[in-house]
Amino acid sequence: MRNEKPRYDLGKGRKVYATVTKEGDIRYLPRESDASALEKLRGLTIPDEVVDDHEKRRRRTALKGDDADHKLRRAQRAARRAGAVTSRPDRPIVPVTRARDGAEIWDGASLPEVSEEKQRETLKKLKPKYDLFKGRMLWPTETARGKIEYLPLRDDATNDERIDGRYAAFAPPEPLEEFLQDLEDQDTIQRQTFDTERGEVKAYSQEDIEDAFESAPTLVLRAAGLVEGAARETPRLRQAWGDSLP
Questions:
Q1: Range of 37's domain?
Q2: Could you tell me which of 220, 226, 234 has the C-alpha nearest to residue 165?
Q3: Where is the composition biased (Basic residues) (predicted)?
Q4: Alpha carbon distance, N-terminus to C-terminus of the chain
Q5: Domain total for the chain?
Q6: Which of helix, strand or coil describes residue 130?
Q7: pLDDT in tens, 62-71
């Protein structure tokens, strides 16, 4: 990290910190706890403890006030004021999951269930820990790029953990976009046009997604929220409607 004040990212309501790439360029990244799932998956974050340590050292030698801190506090105060108007992103279209003919349509993010045999192929290579308090196994799971935590499988997760995506899910080693693009290049899977109650939509069929995961040479454990959150931020994986149909 560079020894300079962080900037305030007004669009996402967070501070970002200056880093230097291998090419010598300056790139501003968020701390891990403020990052989106896609940023975490791509490793475009800075560990919280690194940021905290850096900021402590920087503030010891800083001669001026921290502009980003001031902007953050002003934005927080403005948001708390009664009647304050804040900008909100456009609400995304809710994906459709079934065509008129009954065919199931993939929503563009949700991870499919894989067979018990496929699960065993992945789990037999890993060393779990036993959660004595809840009587379940916890498995080493990637929750951010390069970060491993022990999480339960979906069947062993609590309702809150399922809602938050805090459970181990089976996913390909590469991001879903790359995984599916490779299959398209091999002509193994293709988007289809479905006739639905809301009009025509172009998307992958749920059956094709399930077959793709089942046929994948390797699956790894990643936090469901990490993978699905990154997928929702990837435009190419979204269902295409009406005028946006390619």
A1: 7-80
A2: 226
A3: 71-80
A4: 42
A5: 2
A6: strand
A7: 544 445 555 5
